[in-house]
Amino acid sequence: MRSVELFTGCGGLAMGLSHAGFRHELMVEWNENAYATIKHNKERGLSHVHDWPSQHADVRDIDWSTIPGNIDLVAGGPPCQPFSIGGKHAGNEDRRDMWPEAIRAVRELRPRAFLFENVRGLTRPAFSEYLRWIKTHLALPQIERLGEENHTLHLARLDARIDKSLYELAVIQVNAADFGAPQKRHRVIITGTRKDIGVRPCLPSPTHSREKLLWDQWITGEYWARHGLSRPKDDAIQAYDSQTIKKLRTMLVPPSGEPWITVRDALVGLGDPNGKNNHVRQDGARVYVGHTGSPLDQPAKALKAGDHGVPGGENMMICDDGSVRYFTVREAARLQGLPDDYMFPCSWTESMRQLGNAVPVHLSEVFGRKLHTELLVADKRREAA
Known about the structure:
Layout: E1 2-6, H1 12-20, E2 23-29, H2 32-43, E3 54-56, E4 73-76, H3 99-109, E5 113-119, H4 128-139, H5 151-160, E6 167-175, E7 183-184, E8 186-194, E9 208-209, H6 210-219, H7 222-226, H8 239-248, E10 258-259, H9 263-266, E11 294-295, E12 300-301, E13 316-318, E14 324-326, H10 329-335, H11 348-357, H12 361-384
Parallel strand pairs: 1-2, 1-4, 2-3, 4-5, 7-12, 9-10, 11-13
Antiparallel strand pairs: 5-8, 6-8, 13-14
């Protein structure tokens, strides 16, 4: 199935969608370093990457009419800084707000489906009206904003025409760890399907859980055995897990699904930093309030881009001896689901910024497969009609 992607970054969303069965017709990224990462891996001939039609450009300059034929999916992660809790909270007043461009792509390409990812800060009360404008305009992309009309006035016009909507939407807040990412990364997914294809957007169910991880760690001990470790004593249980574990110990059967993937799980076989393959130690990590790193036996804190690629403790790991160090680029790439042969040609700081901005491959693949299945259902219905 044919897709177009905006705000490609270093390729996490694109990789997941490629795994899910989508073939990219165009991928657009304006940041020179992120584009260089994509280009570098294309030239190296990586699977799922060698034929990516990436373009170094500003999406505002793209003429979508140049893409021939029907597009099945428009996807992207519009810049999150305007809505991030760690940002300036300027929302739609921030010049980096690219939601209007995401909606323009939907309007001009009329894809059968779309999939957009953003930070959960977008759902804060301060942005509630703007989020409603985003959702309503995605449902009615054909009704353009006029001249200097602000989003509030435009929303009123959209509301009056809601019966003419072209798309049905589904919006969900997710934790990427619940979908197999070794990272507690809270995001908002906005997806939609065109009404005329006859299938409604259906959200995938979580595949992994904290409860199943705690069961494997503290009920059966299977987790520690798998890693060749002695089971810790109960006094190592975190206070915030104690009540859940107490409840689990009364259960006769384990929770359904798979356990959360931990940092230790994600880094199996990688070994200590060896100076090769982006697995290079970066000095300078230290602990202070709010900057404590990610424990090995939980999913990592959400990797963040930050001004210098190393905000807070999100990009540090707590080692078995209690010391902390920064994740190497290779380790961070594993936390985002990128394969070990996916290389980052830029500096450690720039590479960590790209990884902090990326969509986890695990998350995009799960949602991509769900959309792919829905579109196949639509195809079969059309053929049977």
